[in-house]
Structures are given as structure tokens and as C-alpha cells.
Amino acid sequence: MEFTFNAFYTLIAAVIVLLLGRFLVNHIDFLRRYNIPEPVAGGLVAAILSLIVHNFWGYSISTSSALQTSFMLIFFASIGLSANFAKLKEGGVGLVIFLVCVASFIVVQNFVGISLATLLGIDPLIGLIAGSITLTGGHGTAGAWGEILEKQHGIHGALALGMASATFGLIIGGIIGGPLAKLLINRYQLAQSHTLAQAESRDSQLHAENDSAEFVPFEYPHQVRLITADNAITTLGMFAACLAFAEFMTGFSKGTWFELPTFVWTLAGGVILRNVLESVFKVSIFDRAIDVFGNASLSLYLAMALLSLQLWQLTDLAGPLVVILGAQTLTMALYAAFVTFRVMGKNYDAAVLAAGHCGFGMGATPTAVANMQAITNMYGPSHKAFLIVPLCGAFFVDLINATVIQFILKLF
User: Fold this and answer.
1) Could you read off the pLDDT of 246-269 as tens digits, one per residue?
2) Minimal CA–CA distance to 400: which of 361, 356, 351, 343?
3) How far is CA 189 from CA 41, 215, 372, 377, in A?
């Protein structure tokens, strides 16, 4: 028997899951160390409880799909609205080269996933799920494509597979990035490690220098940033415009060569709106409000998606999934060491960039940043890496990934 939560109960349940996740992350060192998101921590507990209830009593639940989809679209709109093309000049040639590395790896990642799925005798699209959809894309992309693969391509349990793969990638991306960069730095003698006292002294000095700054570089400690009601209202209006644009373009492009999923149009709408407002009308965009609403929407969406996970659908695919994800881990490490590191200059910055690529190539941008922080805390700052990786991981990688995935799906 299945119970369907309406929008109100879905929201209440999602908030409870988030509070549970926050409690777990704050009290379990493993979750905190590997940057496991609160909705993932709480949502997986909820999914396991749901599995137990289903196996013993035959009950399951589903959440409000309309509310869940709305939060997902708001999250992708926030990615688009954060894409300031003027920042491309700051990244320079290094950003372009790194983007080529990332785009190439997305193709490699999907080739590995699809090839292994075919060899293991399962649907090749499951290899795509255990490829760039979840590993480079993360939980948000996993949820978005999971729904499409279930409804349009008949892949039962695609959402559950996606969440499991994305969680694995998030953990493993945080495990392999730091040690790999350390190995490269020591092997090629690129930098000398700092003592704990030296690192703490440097961080304190940098924090003092940036204490009054509105925006603080990722290398430095986080600083609380305030938003106002006016900014919040303006930002909500931009989100509404992105969603309206996406709804129109989804209907307009249906059946044409440029047909794309709604969430991709939402992201594209955000990019267009942001850069037209800034470049043409000289409107100042309030990034802090975009970040707040985007992160809140992602957390609520993930909590809702994980609440309705049906883990019992994964039983037959557990073995092949482990094989594919293991191969993806090895592929990521080898690619970062022999391609990313060498192409980016084979120097200290390149080693830090390799650690960052492991982070969002297997997990997410926060994991990439955490990897780089672990290295720079020990060996010193890398301003080039902390400029390029957030720019690439926060937006461009999602656009490249969506394009590659869409192309592959058309082949099937």
C-alpha cells in the first residue's frame, strides 16, 4: 500500500529530514569530514526506515511531485543566475583549458559507465546513471535526470540508483582528492608542507585582512552575509521569470531538434537573465540571496526525493553498480594524475586543481573546495585553483554535462 503526501505534509516531512540530517552531521565525525550534505544524511536514514517498513508491513510513501519539481527547478535557476560571464576574463586561458579537461572527462566517464553496464548485461543507461549524471552532476542532477529516465526511458529505480551513486561519489571524491594531490606534490617536489602553527597563523592573518570584506575568497574562513527583504523579493521575481521561461521553452521546443528537459531550460534562462540584466541594463545582481534560495531549494528537493526512495528496487543491481563505481573511482584518479595535472602545467597549482577535479568529478563543488582547502592549508595558497574550480564547478560543468547527456540519450 502506498501513501501519497500532499504539498503541506511533504514540506513538513522534508524539514524533519533536514533537521535529522543536521543533527547527524553535527554529531558524526565521518559525515562532517567528508562533507556529506544534511539532506543526504537525513534522507538516507529515512529511506532505510522506509525500506524496513516496506519489507515488514508492505507500506511505502511518495511525496508531492509538483512541490518537489518546483524546488528542483529553483535550484537550477540559481545555478544559471550565478553565471556571470564577465568572470570568464578573470579565469583566463587556464579556465578554458580546465574546462576542456572537464568536458573530456565527462565523455570518458560516460564511456566507462555505459561500456561496463553493457558488459555486465544490464541496461546501458544504468551505466550513464553511474556516470556523469550522478558523479559529475551530483545529487541535484541525479534527481532531475532520474525522473526523466524513469518516466521516458523506463529505467525502474533510476532515482534510487542516482542517489546511491551520487552519495558514493561524494564520499569517494573527498577521499581520493587530497591524497592524490599530496602524492603529486611530494613526487615532483612542488611545495614544502607547513606546520599546524604556521597554517593557523596564516589563516588568522588572512581572516583579519578580509574581516570587513563583503565577499571572501574560498581559501579563507566563511563569513556571514546578510540579505534584506527587498533583495529577497527581487530574487524571487528572477526565479519566477526563469521558471516561466523554462515552461514556455519546454512546450515550444517539444518535438524539435533543440528539445531539452525543463531543468536545462531553467538553467539557461538564469544565464540569459543574469547577463542581460548586468550587461545591458547595468542592474546589480545580489548573489547572496541567490545562493541562499538556491541552497535551501536544493536541500528541500533532496530531502523530498530521498523520502520517497524505494531501495528495494536496487537489490538486483547492487553488484553491477559496485563494479561500475569502483571502475569510475580508478578512472577519476588516473585522469586527474595523468591528464588534469599535466595539462594544467604540472606545477603546484596543477596539483591543487587535480584535487579539485576529483572533488566535483566524483561529487560536488563543495567537495572540490574542501579537497583544495586540505592541500592549501598544508602547503600554502593557490589563488589560481580557487578561482578556476568554483567558476567551473558551480556552473559551466553542469551546462557541459547536460549537453553531453542529452546527446547520448538521443543515441538511445
Assistant:
1) 999 999 998 888 888 898 899 889
2) 361
3) 38, 33, 18, 17
On whether residue 63 sits in a domain, the answer given is: yes
In sequence order, what DSSP letters do the residues of 316-362 get, joined into one string?
A: GGHHHHHHHHHHHHHHHHHHIIIIIHHHTTSSHHHHHHHHHHHHHHH
Cell, residue 224: 556571514
Is pTM beyond 0.70 here? yes
Count how many domains the chain has. 1
Cα–Cα distances (Å) from 180 to 273, 354, 397, in that order, read: 39, 8, 22
Could you write out the DSSP letters of every residue in 191-211? -PPPPHHHHHHHHHHHHHHTT
Q: Which of 65, 84, 91, 92 lies closest to 5, judged by CA?
A: 65
For residue 215, being part of any structural domain is answered with: no
pLDDT in tens, 140-195: 899 899 989 998 898 988 988 998 898 888 878 888 998 999 999 999 999 887 65
Three-state SS at 295: helix
Contact 3, 60 (CB under 8 A): yes
Q: Is residue 77 a contact partner of residue 291, using CB atoms and an 8 Å limit?
A: no
| Residue that the C-alpha cell 592573518 belongs to | 205
- Residues 6+ away with beta carbon under 8 Å from 286: 227, 231, 234, 235
CA 208 to chain centre: 31
* Residue 61 included in any domain: yes
- Determine the structural domain holding residue 378 and report its residue range: 2-209+226-411
- Would residue 375 count as lying in a domain? yes
CA distance 260 to 255: 10
Question: If 0-12 CB within 10 Å is exposed, 13-18 middle and 19+ buried, where does residue 276 land?
Answer: exposed
